Amino acid sequence: MTDVHPAPAVEDATVAEVTAATNEIALEDKSAEHVHGPDCDHDHEHDHEQQQALAGQRHDYDLLEVNGTKDKTTDPLVKKYFEAKELFAKANERLDQIPEGTDAELIEKHKDEIVSVTKDLMQAFLLDDKACLMNQRILKLAEQYEAYVQANNPEGTSTATADSEEEGAEQQTTVYTRDSVIFVIMILWSGGQYEHCIQTLTFAIQEFEPLKGRLLELRANCYMALRNFKACNDDFEEALTIEPVNVENHSTLGNIFYVTHQAQDALHHFKEFVAVAHPDSRTLPNAYYALSILTLLSAPSNATKKKSNQALKQAAALKEAQEYFKKAQEADVRFKELYGVMTGYNDIKRTAIQAFQIRTATRSGLISTDPTAALLEASELLKKSFKNPGISSCANCGRPDNVANQGRSQELKPKPLIKCNKCNKVAYCSRPCQIAHWNATHKNACKK
């Protein structure tokens, strides 16, 4: 992972510059949850009921209110989400009472309200970014808050000095507070400017130690959006060492390792997750479905003798896989009780159902009640389809596709990963990644 020097990150992304740039960005509401954070292109005109309706379309937790089951779960993530949502909504109501503008007299008159609303909005964003919808009034508040910081130099203000990119120009000094930096992160995050967001998050991680775990999660999601899975995994792993209580990070890591065909790492993180996850976790069904597949995948092949070690291990793996699948179905039922809908058919759930609900016809034409033969067949098929991680993703950054495919027409055949032509065992998304990995480790392991 490449570290970014902190001072330029702040200088490159001051609140004034970011808000000015973001005013030109079309913010979109995706009407579905995803790792990128909330984007919205609607002009809300401070219509908070509309904001809440849009939020209801965006996140499963809002279905709890629709279904009348919000109080039937003690899931701490549900509690945190609604705390953030309520805090954000109330701050927006107070924001409506602050006139727009950045002239000195207005800022001085309303400085207490500007500071208070900014503090609550940033706290809500740090609690749960999915509960916070960006709008144009919040962007204008960012300008007002920066004007306040520059004029009043409040307690907690710091400065960062950076060299200007223009030749011969003097050094530039940026004045900032914790909330002004978090405001920049929120704006960049909401606008999908993940590369710039990573720069500012890197600075914030170095500056604000008490927020490090949460900021690492945000940066990990930025890396995920950019498909830099190695850096993403590193940040989630570090976040877990700082705040082990955030067990959903195990679930996220399990999904990333599963998608990049790293079965053992995926198995480890999903097991860590289900061991301590809240029984109402919205990601629990997926984790159990994944564990059923990964455990089935681990069943030894060619166990010919019934009581041999291989046969015993095979039988144990099949039994454990079936137990995981049963737990997945039970978690699915609980999910429907709470949210009023079943979990979606993603690749993991679809694969698990295909593997565990298959039945084999006997010679007499009857359906066998013993699933062993069918499960062993499914296990072998999974082993063939679960590709070598070194070939299915970049050995340096973990990206699963060639960077040259970005912006490439869908009508054109995608460019494959770049394989090492010496050993043919690893592949890369780009030439720079190939060079970096060669110099770091591969030159010592490659078959020459």
Automatic annotation (TrEMBL):
Coiled-coil portions: none
Q: Which UniProt keywords apply?
A: Metal-binding, Zinc, Zinc-finger
Record has Zinc-finger as a keyword: yes
Please report the stretch or stretches of sequence annotated as the MYND-type domain: 394-446
Which SUPFAM superfamilies does the record associate with it? HIT/MYND zinc finger-like, TPR-like
Query: What does the record give under GO molecular function?
Result: zinc ion binding
The UniProt annotation puts the region (Disordered) at: 29-50
Name recorded for this polypeptide: MYND-type domain-containing protein
Q: Which organism is it from?
A: Lobosporangium transversale
